[in-house]
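Record format v2
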Amino acid sequence: MGRLVAIANQKGGVGKTTTAINLAVALAQANGDAAGLPLLVVDLDPQGNTTSGLTPQAELSEIKASGATVYEAIVGTVEVTQALRRIRDRIFLLPSSANLVGAEVELAGADHRERRLKEILDPIKDHYSFVLIDTPPSLGLLTLNAMVAADSVIVPMQCEYYALEGLSALLGTIARVRRVLNPDLEIDGIVLTMFDSRNRLSHEIARDVSRHFPDKLFQSVIPRNVRLSESPSHGLSVIEYDAKSAGAEAYRALAAEIALRTGAT
Amino acid sequence: MGRLVAIANQKGGVGKTTTAINLAVALAQANGDAAGLPLLVVDLDPQGNTTSGLTPQAELSEIKASGATVYEAIVGTVEVTQALRRIRDRIFLLPSSANLVGAEVELAGADHRERRLKEILDPIKDHYSFVLIDTPPSLGLLTLNAMVAADSVIVPMQCEYYALEGLSALLGTIARVRRVLNPDLEIDGIVLTMFDSRNRLSHEIARDVSRHFPDKLFQSVIPRNVRLSESPSHGLSVIEYDAKSAGAEAYRALAAEIALRTGAT
Ligand SMILES: Nc1ncnc2c1ncn2[C@@H]1O[C@H](COP(=O)(O)OP(=O)(O)OP(=O)(O)O)[C@@H](O)[C@H]1O
Ligand SMILES: Nc1ncnc2c1ncn2[C@@H]1O[C@H](COP(=O)(O)OP(=O)(O)OP(=O)(O)O)[C@@H](O)[C@H]1O
Ligand SMILES: [Mg+2]
Ligand SMILES: [Mg+2]
């Protein structure tokens, strides 16, 4: 019930949002029977790409004007249930806000500043099969909040040198969070993204990661696939935009692997 | 003299670091005669990719242990001149530190928190032809410091939907900084990166940007080129790694365009 998963990597542009959106749709579909619980996606990145990647253009300005987003829920001016929106038959969204940029400084002196997200999500998480949290490209207070609230972390990793370099800093942060703030935090796994089989570097990076972290690497690898970068402009996941594409196949395979690993149904 | 340029875009993975490194080497080479001033690169991103992309592996641990980076210079425990390192014949580096992650919260209550970088760079900037500042993927305090210190901003923009979406938030932030903190801040231009001529989306995004911001778009476009992603693992710019590559050509063309636009020599 209610497995809370943070999708995190401080390296920018590695596929966090793309993984949050497509995994959410794939997991919700895999859980297909009506008795199953719906799924919740939380957009904790002030850029709001998960929010815009799953919402039609026309509704985005309404969300912006609503004053009921994850920001207001975290600072406490709105009850979290008032900020939830049903965006698909079996998917709810807790949308982002540009105001999250200021949260880091605003919460700097506050009590429990790392636990704010946990305090608003714990009471509602059992209404969902999974709660996926998309995080910003940083190891600051917002990502910290996601790791404190989460049961586990999924790490998307682009097959590039800088992404590999940043991995040890990220795993170090996860270990520190586990020691000090959230002893039960696990790593579900590292998922290789934008893998280009024609490119020697992709193979080199994949080999390096599987040598250093053999038990952490998901078997499913997400290939570089243009349909994945086209789908957000339609407010759709790639699974809805082009169900037969290589990107859709790969995220369905990843969803199956995660459901198996976590024993969730 | 001493034109200070921030390389900024809160969207992650758009090519900020790749532009900082390769533009630095291209500008330093274009300025070739011995009488010209050297160039300074400031790595203001806690990830430290500009630092590692220009420095041999063996020297990186020495920088980490030195306690003399841009972090110590900003918080005032070290004089900035002590943190500068000559990394090429005509290029100096003010290296990053992982401690920058904490700067946002540490400086939250301090005086002049947005002007710390400006205060340390103003006294030294005229020793250089250009000072290029690589920034993290965020609109927080570190990027704000870069925009307050800078004469102008260069915006790398990946030819992807989410990168286009984030452009108006970035230009809005630059306008706010100009109004409140740095009235002389200009935008040198937007440079399209990772352009793939076989991909319809690249052409669509390029058309959109040139329609919305006709006078801001650099003519030089950086193509997707695997040599650009291979070079950092050798601690080299692409210009040094493979001078005849499409990536090296494109950054030399961009350097020529910038030297012309800014009238700098
Ligand atoms: N497998 C893929 N194939 C092709 N394009 C992809 C793939 N995965 C992601 N993309 C594209 O690459 C860009 C970066 O991906 P995305 O925005 O999901 O990364 P992110 O880690 O969430 O970025 P940020 O750090 O800014 O939050 C996006 O434009 C996305 O559409
Ligand atoms: N034109 C290009 N062609 C191919 N690969 C590129 C190109 N430009 C950058 N890259 C690669 O894409 C990745 C992202 O680029 P880079 O790290 O420079 O972006 P960034 O904006 O600095 O990221 P961050 O937001 O994490 O600071 C890197 O692995 C880099 O090597
Ligand atoms: Mg994202
Ligand atoms: Mg960078």
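The CA atoms of residues 164 and 205 of chain A lie 7 Å apart.
The mean pLDDT of chain A is 94.
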